[in-house]
Amino acid sequence: xxxxxxxxxxxxxxxxxxxxxxxxxxxxxxxxxxxxxxxxxxxxxxxxxxxxxxxxxxxxxxxxxxxxxxxxxxxxxxxxxxxxxxxxxxxxxxxxxxxxxxxxxxxxxxxxxxxxxxxxxxxxxxxxxxxxxxxxxxxxxxxxxxxxxxxxxxxxxxxxxxxxxxxxxxxxxxxxxxxxxxxxx
Length: 185
Fold this sequence. Notes:
It holds the Pfam family UPF0149. This protein is mostly helical. Helices cover 64% and strands 0% of the residues.
């Protein structure tokens, strides 16, 4: 499959031609971060957060793509697959380009999560996931074009495909009413 036809490349082209100098990976990370933090799936608040990152007016074609992206993320987070598809360059892209996008994705995720998470009651595991993402967002220069670099990249990517689900499940649990508590009456 030629690189030009990847969803990442298509989104990158859409953003660039619309005058937005933002990585699709960062945008997708932002969306997953805010969703995992419990922001819900209201289009308007997502578009407002996206507009802050995109710095400018969002044209209809970009707006439609953002809403489509949100619908996909909603399906992944609320479905049964237990994995999300990351909006990253294809495996044919140079490792350095993919590693930079991975870092941008993590930065976007941390921003989205930080902007929307209000509870501050994450488990130790949840906090470790956020620390891991912060560390991963800094590693893009550490991956080299080698079999080890490829392997490291793949392991990190697999981890990132489940990390949002863990955080989403955790923040969702915090939102559920504590129905099991006996009443005081």
